[in-house]
Each structure stands twice: as C-alpha cells, then as structure tokens.
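Following up on my earlier thread - several people asked me to post the actual chain instead of describing it. Fair enough. Here it is, all 254 residues.
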Amino acid sequence: MMKTEEFLDFAVQFALAGGQHTLKYFRKSVEVIRKGDASPVTVADREAEWVIREKIQARFPDHGIIGEEHGRINEGSNVQWVLDPIDGTVSFIHGIPLYTTLIGVLVDGNPVAGVIYAPALDEMVDGSADTGTRLNGTTVSVRSCNDLSEATFITTDRKNIRKYGFDTKINEIMKRVRVDRTWGDAYGHMMVATGRADLMFDPILNIWDAAALLPVVQGAGGHFLDVNGEPDIHTGNGISVVSGIKDEVLNLLK
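Reply from S.P.:
Thanks for posting it. Predicted structure:
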C-alpha cells in the first residue's frame, strides 16, 4: 500500500491538472446547465473531472473513483479517489476566484489524504493527519481562538441554512462571533485550515465535497465534524473548527 505522502503527491498533481483546466473557462461566457437537484454545472466542471479521471486511471487503473459529474468506477477497490472538479460552481459562474478543485483519498473507506486547490488564486493546500497540512508547500496550522467573541465565522449561503433548519442556531452563533462572512464552499474550510478563520459551517455536503476537507483540517490541527460532533464525511453536513471553540459551537448546534 502506498504511503500517505505518496497519495498526497499524486493528488496534488491531479488537482493541479484539473484546476488549471478550469481556468480556460473562468470569466468566460459558458453555458450554465441545471442538474436534477437544480444545482448548476458547466462544461468546465465536466471537462476538468475527465482530465483528473484520465490521469488517475492511467496511473492507478485498479483504483476506484467517485466523481460528482461522472459517477463511480471500481467500487470494490479499497482505494477510492473522490473528486469535485469545481466546488463552488456558483462562484465560478460569477467570476469569483474562491472556487476550488477537491480531491480526497479514501482507503478502506477512511479519508486519509486531501487536496483543496484554488486555481484562480494559485493556492494549493494538501494535508493529512499523518503528514500535517501545507499551503503551497509550507506547513500551516489553525490559529488559536478560545472564545466565540473573538472568532471569524464563515458559511456558504443563508438560504441552505434556512432550508435545512439551522437558521435559529446559526443566528445565535452569528450574534456571538466577532466577524461573519460568506467566503464559503471548500474555500471557507481552507481558511480555517490555514489560520485565516476559526469556524466554517456547511449545512449540506456530499461525499465529494467532504472527503478532501477532513484530512486537510485534521492535518492543520483543527477538527472537521458533523453537527453531532463526529468526524464523518457521510452525514451530509460539516463544520471545520479550532479546538478552543469546538465545544461551544457544538453545544449551540445541538
């Protein structure tokens, strides 16, 4: 079995190729298609995932792939590459450079390595609990924050917070924090992992959204949890948070 560092090295290469491909379409006129769940997708999402998939299949033909745009292959493999070619398609469509390319690696179902790449900003974050987390090759960590009154809170949008029943609880958190902003999607989790924010909340996540986040945040010394306090990528929501305010946040979300 490959070492975590090797998985990360390849994930960085694959994310770089897919992310760079998205720049061909960034701030260009591209058709926006609505998927069955009403979420948007573009040719950039679909082509970038093919770029990544082809590289994985050429190097690791027996490994599995789980992709947002093109489904699953080799589901019986104990190694699964989990792909989101453009996380933050709404940002991408509007020419906002906070979208990312995500690659997570699962071994026997456990997320062991993750990459968050913001191609328009040239920010590459890779991490795992084994290796730590790096931003463009330099080790980074979460910052210290021991009180919500000093915290910077990030989320993606208020509509889904209301839709999934978290409005009252998130309003209470927002009353207590020092700063709240919507620099969301995976970029918000990256901000926590790189010491630029203290709390990021997503009320709805799919596996391709979450698989890269957990190892990156854990590698930086933070926590990636669901609203029940479990480090789980399958339960449909996610919080990235620093240790000093973790318990207070979870109590408010219960």
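The chain has nine helices and 15 strands. That should answer part of your original question.
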